[in-house]
Amino acid sequence: MNTIDTKLWTSENVAADLERAVHEHRLPPGTKLGEDELAEAYGISRTIVRAALQALSHRRLVEHKRNRGAFIAQPSVREAREVFEARSLLEPRTARSAATRMTEQDLDILKQNIADEHVALDAGENGRALLLSGQFHLEVARIADQATIEDMISELISRSSLVIALYWRRRAALCETQAHHALLDAFAEGNGDAAEDLMKSHLLDLVASLDLRSVSQPATSLREALGR
Amino acid sequence: MNTIDTKLWTSENVAADLERAVHEHRLPPGTKLGEDELAEAYGISRTIVRAALQALSHRRLVEHKRNRGAFIAQPSVREAREVFEARSLLEPRTARSAATRMTEQDLDILKQNIADEHVALDAGENGRALLLSGQFHLEVARIADQATIEDMISELISRSSLVIALYWRRRAALCETQAHHALLDAFAEGNGDAAEDLMKSHLLDLVASLDLRSVSQPATSLREALGR
DNA sequence: TGGCGCAATATTGTATACAATAATGCCGAC
DNA sequence: GTCGGCATTATTGTATACAATATTGCGCCA
């Protein structure tokens, strides 16, 4: 962190900062999040750090191991499937709803998002591209104007970042913006049916681009890889 | 609490204990949850209490007001609708899935739940009946074997308890067990289509039994009822 | 008498001290 | 030389002390 930090680091800020780092794949799954280390980095006490870690733990981005500390979560293959199963229940219908509520301003935001993602991809900033890709989905949820569902999708998108970090199979890089562009067209037409279908397909494509053969577990570290 | 408490009150235990109290309508929306008060009641320090309150806050069962303390949440009419909208996206499909995975043992559990709810209703234990009713839905989610979705439904059920506490309109008491019984039949037949439809109708009935005319806000306490 | 402001009080927010636990390294015994 | 146990160290878990803030009550003044 900066030595001169004018920002006030509340637990929410710290949690958001860490979550962003997860989104951008700067904090890979399994990373140890030492309390003292973070406290010093942000210039706050462990109390705030612990609150932030608890918040992330509730969002399943962080796993707590008793007396061992907090770690960036490593979703299992099982959990990876579940996250996308949940998204497939929520997001298509949400996209349909968004299509009927879409304003010109909303469309501009989504267009800008896609453009930004293109720029990031061209610049090789994959982390940023991934963040923007998630933000597209989140923006759709926001437009649907269902805060409760939006919160759920928000958490699922974050967890998806971890899943992608663990199970993304190389190749097929820019299919993302294609799918988002198709969705944008449906939104522009106010075509709810199309938006729902496109979102459903998009999510299926995402899962298909993952390597979820349970053999190649992450097994980053240690004893639990051996089951003891 | 008991003066002699052999139980170890971790923050999770405390949170679960409070959540149960919310379910059973022993803690009505708006109730102030003083940290010192809870700490003394459970015989622990404020540290644990705060962790528990944070957990409940993340589940939207508790609202934190800066420098004012924690209160049992009072979902707005808007939020009430959103909660049931979310449930209607998740639970019908989950019920379908549960129908195809249902075992004899699962059926027994659900039967027992309905029976227990009947007993509670006959005994006039409305809080317990409500708790059991929620558990029925949660059990269905468990049977569907999608832990991620189950967690979401669990939170939504808890929040529904608050909604019911605030907006339940008297009359129509025991329609609950009827709907659950119909679902049970569908489960017994392994009829996913019927289960999905029944769950959808059941949730619509639940919303219909609420008084969600935005005028009659709860406005339990004070200044924010007047917007300042 | 009513309103304003200050002081007292209570409660939450934060930091820190201490306890408990697990990991690590050392040393001795076989 | 290797294994087992003990001591050391590091890290998290919990309690508590202190600071910050909001509320409440009192008293002064118009």
Output the CATH homologous superfamily of the largest domain in chain A: GntR ligand-binding domain-like
Just give the CATH class of the largest domain in chain A.
Answer: Mainly Alpha
How many domains of chain A? The number is 2
Residues in β-strands, percent of chain A = under 5%
Please bin the fraction of helical residues of chain A. 55-70%
Give the SSE string of chain A: HEHHEEHHHHHH
Can you walk me through this structure?
The structure is a homodimer. Chain A has about 230 residues and is mainly α. The first copy, chain A, has 2 domains: about 10-70, Orthogonal Bundle (Arc Repressor Mutant, subunit A), CATH 1.10.10; about 75-210, Four Helix Bundle (Hemerythrin (Met), subunit A) (Up-down Bundle). Chain A contains 9 helices and 3 strands, in the order H-E-H-H-E-E-H-H-H-H-H-H. In chain A, strand 2 (about 60-65) and strand 3 form a beta hairpin. In chain A, helix 1 (about 10-25) crosses helix 3 (about 45-60), helix 5 packs antiparallel against helix 6 (about 125-145) and helix 5 packs antiparallel against helix 8 (about 175-190). Residues about 220-228 of chain A have low confidence and may be disordered. The interface of A and B includes residues 82, 83, 85 and 93 of A.
In brief, what are we looking at here?
The structure is a homodimer of 228-residue chains. Helices cover 66% and strands 4% of the residues of chain A.
